[in-house]
Backbone:
């Protein structure tokens, strides 16, 4: 049985997150999205941990469920077509900021543990180092290697530390501004205990395959959601027993790891190089030609994920390791409907259409990935079916993200919507689409 897991999320106790990030909303939205395993996020925060203890009940080994009385009270918020079991796995992101040699390192680490007891033990150890109540994602002056040691000690070596969004320029193990040149360099003698790395929104598996040093790690993806509606924008697929140790073993051995669901990496907010203040976006070759300086103001550019991958890569584009897991690139259903309607993804009409489609056809991820186009056509019209078909085939045009600005993925051209306005159902048939362009600054202008 396929299990969809989104292990990197946050709670309302993290800065710049939605007030709806509580267990109840996570439970509801996990079902609407079609996710079976959700990270709790933020278990180091004392206020959030108290809620976890109060609202969660033990389920399968190492996993938890929302207490039955809470599930019953929330059931009406989930369309019957989307209803399914949801399990919670103890997880948290920790921001490690420390000196190594002559440089300040800033690395975000995702920690997954098998029980509230082990989570409490780790929190007690970390509370001696920094203030855990100041932020759901605590900032600690602790070397990433030493955090890994504490994770292993607190969990009898069952816990997982997964380097988070490893390419992000500012806060990651391989980031251009404050990271290292390899995972082994970051975690030193304990590096063999790292079994997986999180690729992040601005990269996809083919980009990571260009580094032979990453072959030893499973590639995982998560939403890093700051609101419950963003659950599942990236996720990891498992085909194993529903249990913490089974999930961990799948990452260690790759047996039972079924792949990932991905952003189109151009949509991530650090894909290209650039300078947001000057609205400058550049491909790596252009940045190198300008010595990493903004052509408008002369200041340093933020070098994005593509630049950093090319800097460290020892393989050409397109290389695929023998053990590489499959992946699927998706856009969110709201973003697809926004393309179809020619309005913003937060528009009332888009959100209403999304809810109606999921109530009729089932969870969002299943709808996007596998529902036959004929069923999509009957429910939402030919234009919706064509847009999702293009997404599945990778026939998209992109505006790459840079320096903290999310990129955009385009499935339909404005003239196509105008040409089809007023036709039957929502939309009608379309002319043949163009293939996805090569990744370059020209393709994202």
Residues:
């Amino acid at each position: 049985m396929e299990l969809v897991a989104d292990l990197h999320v946050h709670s309302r106790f993290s800065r710049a997150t939605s007030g709806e990030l509580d267990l109840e909303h996570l439970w509801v939205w996990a079902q609407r999205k079609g996710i079976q395993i959700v990270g709790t996020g933020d278990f180091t925060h004392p206020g959030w941990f108290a809620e976890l203890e109060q609202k969660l009940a033990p389920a399968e080994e190492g996993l938890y469920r929302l207490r039955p009385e809470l599930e019953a009270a929330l059931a009406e918020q989930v369309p019957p077509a989307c209803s399914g079991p949801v399990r919670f796995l103890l997880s948290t992101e920790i921001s490690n900021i420390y000196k190594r040699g002559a440089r300040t390192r800033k690395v975000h680490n995702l920690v997954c543990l098998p029980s509230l007891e082990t989570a409490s033990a780790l929190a007690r150890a970390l509370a001696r180092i920094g203030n855990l109540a100041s932020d759901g994602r605590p900032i600690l002056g602790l070397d990433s290697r030493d955090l890994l040691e504490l994770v292993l000690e607190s969990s009898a070596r069952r816990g997982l530390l997964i380097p988070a969004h490893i390419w992000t320029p500012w806060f990651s193990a391989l980031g251009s501004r404050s990271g290292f040149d390899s995972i082994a360099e970051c975690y030193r003698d304990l590096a063999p205990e790292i079994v997986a790395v999180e690729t992040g929104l601005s990269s996809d598996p083919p980009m990571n395959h260009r580094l032979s040093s990453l072959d030893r790690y499973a590639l995982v993806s998560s939403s890093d959601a700051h609101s419950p509606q963003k659950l599942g924008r990236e996720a990891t697929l498992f085909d194993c027993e529903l249990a913490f140790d089974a999930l961990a073993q799948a990452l260690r051995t790759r047996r039972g790891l079924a792949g990932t669901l991905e952003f189109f990496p151009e949509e991530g907010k650090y894909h290209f190089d650039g300078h947001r203040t000057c609205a400058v976006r550049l491909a790596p070759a252009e940045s190198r030609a300008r010595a990493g300086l903004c052509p408008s103001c002369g200041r340093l550019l933020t070098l994005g994920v593509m630049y950093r991958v090319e800097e460290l890569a020892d393989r050409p584009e397109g290389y695929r390791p023998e053990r590489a897991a499959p992946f699927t690139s998706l856009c969110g259903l709201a973003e697809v409907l926004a393309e179809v309607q020619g309005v913003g993804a937060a528009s009332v009409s888009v959100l209403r259409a999304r809810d109606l489609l999921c109530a009729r056809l089932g969870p969002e991820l299943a709808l996007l990935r596998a529902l036959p186009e004929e069923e999509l056509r009957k429910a939402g019209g030919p234009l919706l079916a064509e847009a999702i078909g293009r997404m599945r085939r990778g026939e998209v045009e992109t505006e790459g993200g840079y320096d903290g600005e999310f990129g955009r993925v385009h499935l339909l051209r404005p003239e196509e919507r105008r040409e089809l306005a007023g036709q039957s159902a929502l939309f009608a048939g379309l002319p043949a689409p163009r293939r996805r362009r090569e990744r370059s600054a020209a393709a994202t202008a």
User: Anything to note?
Assistant: The radius of gyration is 22 Å.
